[in-house]
Amino acid sequence: MKRLIIILVLLLCAVSYGVPRDAARAERGEFTGPRSGNSQDANIKAALAFISAGSDVLTTGKIWYVDSGEGTGTENGFGWLTAYDTINEAIDASSADGGSGRGDYIVAAPGHNEGGTISAIFDADLIGLTIVGFGRGNQMPTLDFDGASATCAVGADGVKIKNIRFRISVNNTNVNNVPTIALTIDDGADYTVIDGCEFGFAETAGTDEFGYAIQIGAATGTVIKNSIFDAGEAGAVAAITANGSDITTIIDSKITGDYSVANIYAATTTNTHLLFDGNILWNGVHSGLNAQPVIQMKAEDTGISTRNKAACNVATVAAAFVGAKLLNYGNWYNEDVGGAATALNLDVATSTGDFSITVAGDG
User: Fold this and answer.
1) Containing domain of residue 360, as a range?
2) Which is nearest to 237 in space by CA: 194, 204, 207, 267?
3) 167: helix, coil or strand?
4) pTM here?
5) What is the pLDDT of residues 236-284, one digit of tens each?
6) How far apart are CA 226 and CA 239, in angstroms?
7) Residue 171 phi, psi dihedral angles, 5° rounding
């Protein structure tokens, strides 16, 4: 009897542990889907894939799926196999389902691509909505701006956009008359977060260009971080413009291009409590630097500029960071294309006004 029990135990162990790891994973349907014949719901697989991608999921809302490459003909946005073709379709579906304020997510597949010519590519007008893209490099979900009036907009509080490429695809050399804008943050659309997105990357170098990549209205708490702005040499005005904003934060981003005014610019209405921290700011063409600043704010704008690295060619170090009430410290400036001779650390404070610290030191 004892011998029979031992044999049964060994057989059970063989069944439990003798299944190859890949086969076990296929049986469970981990992330890439179950093996043929398993009836696990495709929507559950999509949710597992979403979680496994490491997204910062902080929501009680629903997840909607977008994939321009999914051509099954059946669309409800519940999973990859029935994904919507466009982000705006998913926004509309969420809205119709009562998604505003619920914290819904819209996820775009690797390689997703859509565009627009004369209207909004999307309008994120649902409170607490997150739009996130999967994929890196040429697989990053991409929005093509094929007309001068094409744009995207944020029109509600608490919207987050992550890992989406905004690509200019239209000849827009006369940007002062036709200011193509990739993304507008509307007045009152508070606490928007733009994280890890890319702007520019012209389809045709030398002609295609955004006038402004992001335009921030009278909104509170906008955060732009870990993003890349790549303007060419076809007449961009500024990467980011702020008009009447409060507590706008631009951090850890790379902003390069041939900007006629500045990389970051305030046009008409006073901005308050600004923070520019840890950005790479190059204003110039590939062969040289522009005689324009990297930051140009209104005289009344208040805020802090710190740890930024500026490349331009202006008369003084302080002239690279324009704003009578900006507090500048710990910034770096370089006007030498070779990069070795004139890097200056703004670390010796000398006040030139009530709130302004324009500083110069031999770095």
Assistant:
1) 260-363
2) 267
3) strand
4) 0.80
5) 899 999 999 999 999 999 999 999 999 999 988 999 999 999 999 999 9
6) 14
7) -70, 115
Alpha helices in the chain (DSSP H): 2-17, 21-28, 42-52, 87-96
Length of the chain: 363
Between 13-22, 127-136, 171-180, 243-252, the lowest mean confidence (pLDDT) is in: 13-22
Q: What phi and psi, each to the nearest 5 degrees, are found at residue 293? A: -75, 170
- Provide mean pLDDT across the span 95-108: 96
Question: Which residues lie across from 143 on neighbouring strands?
Answer: 114, 166
> Is 224 within 8 Å of 253 (Cβ atoms)?
yes
Query: Does 266 reside within a domain?
Result: yes
Of 95, 150, 163, nearest to 124 (Cα)? 95
CA dist., res. 21 & res. 324, Å (int): 64
| In a domain? residue 202 | no
**Number of Cα atoms under 13 Å in the Cβ half of residue 91:** 23
Pairing of strands 321-322, 288-289: unpaired
Which H or E run contains 310?
strand 309-311
Euclidean distance between CA atoms 297 and 265, whole angstroms: 6
* φ/ψ bin of 68: left (φ > 0), alpha (ψ from -120 to 50), beta (otherwise): alpha
Residue 17 identity: Y
Q: Which two tokens stand for residue 302?
A: 């208040």
Q: With left for phi above 0 and alpha for psi between -120 and 50, is residue 137 left, alpha or beta?
A: left
Count of structural domains, the chain: 1
**63-66: strand order across its sheet:** 63-66, 105-108, 130-133, 160-162, 193-195, 223-225, 249-251, 274-277, 302-306, 325-329
Rounded CA gap, 145 and 201, in Å?
A: 11
Strand (E) positions, 55-209?
63-66, 105-108, 113-116, 120-124, 130-133, 142-145, 151-154, 160-162, 165-168, 181-185, 193-195, 198-200
Name residues whose C-beta falls within 8 Å of residue 298's C-beta, 6 or more positions apart in sequence: 266, 270, 271, 323
Query: What distance in Å separates the CA atoms of residue 188 and residue 40, rounded to the nearest whole number?
Result: 44
Q: Alpha-carbon distance 125 to 153, whole Å?
A: 8
Q: Which of 118-122, 137-141, 199-203 has the highest mean pLDDT?
A: 137-141
